[in-house]
Design a protein that fits this description.
By secondary structure, the chain is an all-alpha fold. The chain has helices at about 5-30, 40-55, 75-105, 115-135, and strands spanning about 65, 70. The model has no long low-confidence stretch (mean pLDDT about 85).
């Protein structure tokens, strides 16, 4: 059952990985950033779960026909994750910046909210690797010859 490429399994692996990693962050946030509200913590859990699902879903695209280049997993995952991190950063830049400055101090290397983009891109790399390794990629994920 799990040997054949499957789009549903890609999405399941991506969502599960996002939920598990964000759940770990949910438990660590009170120690790292104590002023973070519960709404923000739940927001990150749901956000990373959705990023995992999006990365799983886009795994059927292995080629960009418009510019005729392949789209490997090591580029596709970080691109989707980084883009989603950029969008989130646009919405919560000031709030997350204030939280990071409160924890790391003003003017330090790690106090920039732009780290959200790097974090989401690294998660995208890991998620697409796991999804591709265990559930396949490309058109084989949506074509089922067993019927």
């Amino acid at each position: 059952m799990f040997k054949n490429p499957s789009l549903i399994m890609r999405i399941t692996y991506g969502k599960t990985l996002g939920f598990v990693l964000a759940g770990g962050m949910f438990l660590l946030f009170p120690n790292i950033i104590p002023e973070m509200t519960t709404a923000y913590k739940w927001g990150f859990v749901f956000y990373y779960t959705v990023i995992g699902a999006m990365i799983g879903l886009t795994g059927v695209m292995t080629y960009v026909p418009m510019i005729e280049i392949p789209l490997p997993w090591w580029f596709r995952g970080p691109w989707i994750g980084g883009w989603m991190g950029f969008i989130l950063m646009l919405f919560i830049y000031d709030e997350i910046g204030a939280m990071l400055i409160g924890f790391f101090g003003d003017g330090t290397f790690l106090s920039s909210p732009l780290w959200l983009i790097v974090d989401a891109a690294l998660f995208g790399l890991l998620a697409d690797f796991i999804c591709t390794k265990f559930a396949g990629e490309g058109p084989d994920c949506i074509i089922n010859d067993n019927q």
